[in-house]
Write a structure and sequence with these properties.
The structure is a single chain. This protein has 306 residues and is of the alpha+beta class. It has helices spanning 2-29, 261-278, and strands at residues 44-56, 61-72, 76-82, 86-95, 98-100, 104-108, 113-122, 125-136, 143-150, 156-163, 184-192, 196-199, 203-209, 212-217, 230-233, 236-241, 247-252, 286-291, 303-305. It has an eight-stranded mixed β-sheet with strand order 5-4-8-2-1-11-14-13, with no helix packed on it. Strand 1 (44-56) and strand 2 form a beta hairpin. The longest helix is centred in the first third of the chain and has 28 residues, at 2-29. 27% of the residues are buried.
Length: 306
């Protein structure tokens, strides 16, 4: 028995040494050196985003335009922001009533940045970065991505939804996608007229043009980019108000709105409870709750709130 035990230990020890040699050889053959993280320059910072997005649920793409009010803190000839999986068609800066077009527009997939280089220095002061771009509704459950559900008749209903936390707003629109760079957001969504289009704030203007619903939302509070949210799709909903008069809606797949009654009842009771417990008033005039078929955040529940 003693001899068998000693033999087993020796065999195990030799296998362990062999494993270490292989691991060491592998590391020497394919070293991995992580590139150090670099923050965006702080010489140009965002103040407000005026953002318009038009998702195409059939082609899994979207078009976008934005005008970013920025504060140029010092004279610069380069503006750098975050952008990933987005193609910029045009860019310009409007400052001191003059338009300046960049001499070069460059994207870096590794650092997920967009760099605008100008042939002249931009002066200090307030200005606007104006961009037109296109992107994809990806299948990665992050950024602006595509999803779908099957209704009671067996028909597939396509939807577009966002998951920006922690650094994926850059996949929906070029932005300063670091939590420290807070700003306000004026969002407009263009969607098929049959669809519901949701964002953080209530709709202040809505019109139908050529079978498209154009929804413009109220300006958000000052917040980080990862808190911005959109949902576009066909949904039913139930609604109610809590004791603080906050409008709460629970959105469900078509034909299943009765399944939202329990969630609505809980939300109406718990929202005031937490406002009292933390002594912090809910900061928005409405709360939308929606179940998403596939959603990367959270534990076992799949959904989002706006």
């Amino acid at each position: 028995l003693e001899c068998s035990t000693r033999s087993f230990k020796l065999s195990y020890y030799n296998e362990y040494k062999s494993y270490l040699r292989l691991a060491s050889r592998s590391l020497k053959m394919s070293p991995t050196v992580a590139k150090p993280f670099e923050h965006l320059p702080s010489n140009v910072v965002p103040v407000n985003y005026v953002l318009r997005l038009h998702p195409d649920l059939e082609q899994n793409t979207f078009k976008g335009q934005e005008s970013i009010e920025v504060n140029v803190k010092e004279s610069v000839n380069v503006i750098k922001m975050n952008s990933a999986e987005i193609e910029v068609q045009s860019a310009k800066v409007v400052i001191n009533n003059s338009e300046v077009v960049p001499s070069n527009i460059a994207t870096d997939a590794n650092t997920e940045t967009l760099t605008l280089t100008f042939g002249q220095s931009l002066p200090e002061g307030k200005g606007n970065v104006v961009l037109e771009f296109t992107g994809i509704l990806n299948d990665k459950l992050r950024g602006f991505y595509r999803s779908a559900y099957t209704d009671n008749s067996g028909e597939k209903r396509r939807i577009a939804v966002t998951q920006f936390e922690s650094t994926d707003a850059r996949r929906a629109f070029p932005c300063w996608d670091e939590p420290a760079y807070k700003a306000t957001f004026d969002v407009t969504l263009v969607a098929p007229a049959k669809c519901v289009a949701l964002s953080n704030m209530p709709v202040v203007k809505e019109e139908i043009q050529d079978d498209l619903r154009i929804s413009t939302y109220d300006r958000t509070p000052i917040m980080s980019t990862y808190l911005v949210a959109f949902v576009v799709g066909e949904f039913d909903y139930v609604e109610g108000r809590d004791e603080n008069n906050v409008l709460i809606r629970v959105y469900t797949p078509l034909g299943k709105k009765e399944q939202g009654d329990f969630a609505l009842d809980v939300a109406i009771k718990t929202l005031p409870f937490y406002a009292k417990y933390f002594e912090i008033k809910f900061p928005l005039p409405k709360l939308d709750l929606i179940a998403i078929p596939d959603f990367a955040a959270g534990n076992t529940s799949e959904g989002c709130d706006l």
